[in-house]
Amino acid sequence: MTNTQEKFKGQDGKDGIDGKDGKDGKDGLNGRDGKDGQDGINGRDGEDGRDGRDGVDGVDGQDGESLFVNVKDFGADVNNEDNTQSFIEATNYAIENKLNLLINEDYKVSGNIRGFSSAHSDFKVKHYGTGSIIRNGHTFKITPTLNDITTLHVSDSHNYMNDGLTPEHTIALSTALRYLKNLGERSLNGQWQIKLHGTIQQRGSSRNLLDLPYFSKPLLITGNRNENDEITTIIDGSENNIDNYWWYNDTGSSYQKYYIFKDLKFTNWRNHATGSGAIVCWDNSDVSVLNCEADNCSRLAWIRNGRLIARYNKVSNGYTAFTVQYHTSFNIEENDISNN
């Protein structure tokens, strides 16, 4: 037998031991900065702050009171022929309670409304309304409109309790002026008039008229004439020992005063040879003197810083008839002037 040596494949050897790790490589180059990121979304609004404390409550005002009393509440009726007593009672109540009198109808009266002008009272009742008072052919419009003329009648034979609504119940000039000063907005309606009766003698106080309201139409200061066209209203200064002037509108007026003097006769206004006279208006006065007379007066009219219209007047035995000064425009024509 053939001695055949069989070849055998030996077993695999064991894995060799791992080699050591190699050294780390060098760091790579730094990369470029990246672009800025977009802004973040706004955060939510913070919570509302707490409410402030409540303020202290104000003090309650007092309840208002009525400012008027209506004459009809005292029985006045347009159908009555005589509402005199109703007007007297309403007037007394208004004075006692410091109220004003409301007259919205056209009422007839036959007698004097005692106290109507409030001359006897510290509180002066004001009259309001669209009505009127009618007596002996005269109509006293409470608030005149358009072509209405509301007249206050004045004389030296007055009584302080008279109403001044008609010639037989005249009031003092000072009372009439005080009534006009309290007109308020009623002076802006229609026209107002002071009608002078008989002989008027100034008694010791000048007529400073700065407190008169603004009139939309000239304030009329007028007298009377008789059937022979002679002036019967005489304004006499012979007993005046204080004032140099009868109508004196002093300086300092903040608005225009409009006056029309008509059918008046002035005598003896000559306390000072050159510095006195009948009518003196200084500053913001628009004056018309029409159909008047002046005798033995230093002058009939003296106007400063205003306007003077003088027509159809008769002036005698004075220093000068008219005086205009400073910024005064004037129209003086057709006057009869002698011995001046």
Largest sheet: 7 strands, parallel
Overall structural class, as computed from helix and strand content, comes to mainly beta
Mean of pLDDT: 84
Q: Beta-sheet strand percentage?
A: 25-35%
Percent in helix: under 10%
Spell out the helices and strands N to C: EHEEEEEEHEEEEEEEEEEEEEEEE
- The residue ranges in which pLDDT falls below 50 over 5 or more consecutive positions are 1-13, 55-65
Strand order of the largest sheet: 7-8-10-13-16-19-22
H/I helix tally: 2
Radius of gyration: 49 Å
Give a count of the beta strands, DSSP E runs of length 2 or more.
23
Shape annotation: globular
Head-to-tail CA distance between termini: 199 Å
Note down, in words, how this protein is organized.
With 340 residues, the protein is mainly β. It has a domain at 135-338. The protein is 6% helix and 28% strand. The protein has 2 helices and 23 strands. A 7-stranded parallel sheet has the order 7-8-10-13-16-19-22, covered by helices on one side. The protein has a 6-stranded parallel sheet with strand order 9-11-14-17-20-23, with no helix packed on it. A hairpin with a 2-residue loop joins strand 5 and strand 6 (138-141). The chain starts with 67 loop residues before the first strand and ends with a strand. Residues 1-13 and 55-65 have low confidence and may be disordered.
